[in-house]
Amino acid sequence: MIWIFVIVGFLIAALLYHAMYTPLKTPLSPNPTIYAQELSQVYQARLTMNYGFFVNGKYFLKYAYLYVYVKERSQSAYNPEKRFVREMIWSFKDGKYDVELIYRLSQLVHKVLDSPYDSTIFICIPASNARRHEQRFKKFSEDICKLAGLQNGYEYVKVVSERSQSHLSDSREEPDWKSYIDIDEKKMVKKSVILFDDVLTSGKTYGSLKKYLEDKGIKVRCGVFLATVPGNEWLAC
């Protein structure tokens, strides 16, 4: 009898996995590169909004993502697809990305946002310092906003100091946004914002920035990420 429950449980888990991930067999971009063709074979998350509590239940966040990011030290890190996603994220952090990624992210934005898109401001969650922020997000923000039809908010947020890189720290201390960034409130107040970052981990950076902006009268519609770490993907509705 117990084997029946085990088999049924396995089948249910398999169905949930396939419902959450959709493998894209063809590239979305009109002139796919070899890289894009390789990327099209990687399992992509279901294009929908997710909801979940982060940082010990402090923030209830809405978010969407394309892939699951598995760190090198994980037992499954050497799976070819997971290694491909990990290397893609590393390249993105250095300001390098393929047009295919922009197309897929644009599709995700259109799936999770209600129209009109042109009234929504696209804001990249600031990197650890001004140099990294510009290298990673300046050109990218321009590209995604052109394709997705969003307002480019890159110039609305200036990094004026330095903070520790969140992925290198186990600390739950949140960024001191007041001393770390300078924002152009006049251009964002009473408007809606979509926040973006490469990887969603603990949610402390996203959640604290969301609260910081909303305390200033700026509505944050959701967060969009290239990837999330294992665990967050099971919070899908």
Pick out its properties.
38% helix, alpha/beta, globular, 237 residues, 6-stranded mixed sheet, two-stranded antiparallel sheet, 22% strand
| Unreliably modeled segments | none
Derived from helix and strand composition plus strand pairing, the structural class reads alpha/beta
Dominant shape: globular
The biggest sheet amounts to: 6 strands, mixed
Strand content: 15-25%
- Helix/strand order: HEHEEEHHEHEEHEHEHE
Individual helix count: 8
Report on the structure:
The chain has about 240 residues and is an alpha/beta fold. It has helices at about 1-20, 35-40, 80-95, 100-110, 130-150, 175-180, 185-190, 205-215, and strands spanning about 20-25, 45, 50-55, 60-70, 120-125, 150, 155-160, 180-185, 190-200, 220-230. A six-stranded mixed sheet has the order 3-4-10-9-5-6. Helix 4 crosses helix 5. The radius of gyration is 18 Å and the shape is globular. It starts with a helix and ends in a 9-residue tail after the last strand.
What's the helix and strand layout?
Elements: H1 2-20, E1 21-23, H2 34-39, E2 43-45, E3 50-54, E4 59-68, H3 80-93, H4 99-112, E5 120-124, H5 130-148, E6 151-152, E7 157-159, H6 177-180, E8 181-183, H7 185-188, E9 192-200, H8 204-214, E10 219-228
Parallel strand pairs: 4-10, 5-6, 5-9, 9-10
Antiparallel strand pairs: 1-2, 3-4, 7-8
